[in-house]
């Protein structure tokens, strides 16, 4: 069965850096686009970033452009989010999400990992 | 960017009621719309994809309709396990992907 198992996260000071990982299994990882989506405490869902199945194209939300980098390692079936220049407003639960077919048509989500940016 | 306007933001209904949530897109998105159910402390799960297709594991009392800019999500015969927050999301235009603000569904 499809599984997306996340790791990373934690507490970091403003301006700091943090990396998130998402380990995929149960499907051919290299055939699907994947995304990061976040949810601030008590708030709604916000899409963060997308990477094409072969890594050839990436897209970012304006709020993270220039600070976050999405990447993937297809032989290892791993998705990453490198976050730098973190701000208090980046505090959220971060989810990885797999595309069903078109970019953004999510069918499976990871369990989520909390990132807290605080001094 | 495509704006998704979801209403109502909260809804209280009784077990057995029919519940309807609407989502309006700021421009034509064809049928590139999903509905997600999110329970507290859990990841969202897709319940409707492509505007009207039932997600894997979603109960048949869930349905979706619409195309273009106006969409609806309906639960016929509300059950206690349906208590959750529901979000619509468009995937016609990337970037950015955008979500509605959510509808918190409670039992009366």
Task: Give an overview in words.
The complex is a heterodimer of chains A (119) and B (108). Chain A contains no helices and eleven strands. With 119 residues, chain A is mostly beta strands. In chain A, the strands form two sheets. In chain A, strands 2, 4, 5, 6, 9, 10 and 11 form a seven-stranded mixed β-sheet that branches. Chain A has a four-stranded antiparallel β-sheet with strand order 1-3-8-7, with no helix packed on it. In chain A, a hairpin with a 6-residue loop joins strand 9 (92-99) and strand 10 (106-109). Chain A is globular. Chain A starts with a strand and ends with a strand. The mean pLDDT of chain A is 97. Chain B is mainly β and 108 residues long. Helices cover 0% and strands 50% of the residues of chain B. Chain B contains no helices and eleven strands. In chain B, the strands form two sheets. In chain B, strands 2, 4, 5, 6, 9, 10 and 11 form a seven-stranded mixed β-sheet that branches. In chain B, strand 5 and strand 6 (53-54) form a beta hairpin. The mean pLDDT of chain B is 97. The interface between A and B is medium-sized, with 22 and 25 residues.
Largest β-sheet summary of chain B: 7 strands, mixed
- Number of helical stretches of at least 4 residues of chain B: 0
Written as H for each helix and E for each strand, in order along the chain, the element string of chain B is EEEEEEEEEEE
Overall number of strands of chain B: 11
Give unreliable regions of chain A as ranges.
none
Instruction: Write the element-wise H/E pattern of chain A from the N-terminal end onward.
Output: EEEEEEEEEEE
Biggest interface and its residues per chain?
A-B, 22 and 25 residues
End-to-end CA span of chain B: 36 Å
Percentage beta strand of chain B: over 45%
Radius of gyration of chain B: 13 Å
Strand residue percentage of chain A: over 45%
Overall SS class of chain A: mainly beta
* Relative helix content of chain A: under 10%
Form type of chain A = globular
How many beta-strand segments of chain A?
Answer: 11
Question: Could you describe the largest sheet of chain A, including whether it forms a barrel?
Answer: 7 strands, mixed
């Amino acid at each position: 069965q499809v599984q997306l198992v996340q790791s990373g996260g934690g507490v970091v000071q403003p301006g700091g850096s943090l990396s998130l990982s998402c380990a995929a299994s149960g499907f051919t990882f290299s055939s699907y686009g994947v995304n990061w989506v976040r949810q601030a405490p008590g708030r709604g869902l916000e899409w963060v970033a997308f990477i094409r199945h072969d890594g050839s194209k990436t897209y970012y939300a304006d709020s993270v452009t220039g600070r976050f980098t999405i990447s993937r390692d297809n032989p290892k079936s791993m998705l990453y989010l490198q976050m730098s220049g973190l701000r208090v407003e980046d505090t959220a639960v971060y989810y990885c999400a797999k595309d069903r077919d078109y970019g953004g048509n999510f069918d499976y989500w990871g369990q989520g990992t909390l990132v807290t940016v605080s001094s | 960017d495509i704006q998704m306007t979801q209403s109502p933001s909260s809804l209280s209904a009784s077990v057995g009621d029919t519940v309807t949530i609407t989502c309006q897109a700021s421009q034509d998105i064809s049928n590139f719309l999903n509905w997600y159910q999110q329970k507290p402390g859990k990841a969202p799960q897709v319940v409707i994809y492509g505007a009207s297709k039932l997600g894997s594991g979603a109960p048949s009392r869930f349905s979706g309709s619409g195309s273009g800019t106006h969409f609806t999500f309906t639960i016929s015969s509300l059950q206690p396990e349906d208590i959750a927050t529901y979000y619509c999301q468009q995937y016609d235009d990337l970037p950015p992907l955008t979500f509605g603000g959510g509808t918190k569904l409670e039992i009366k």
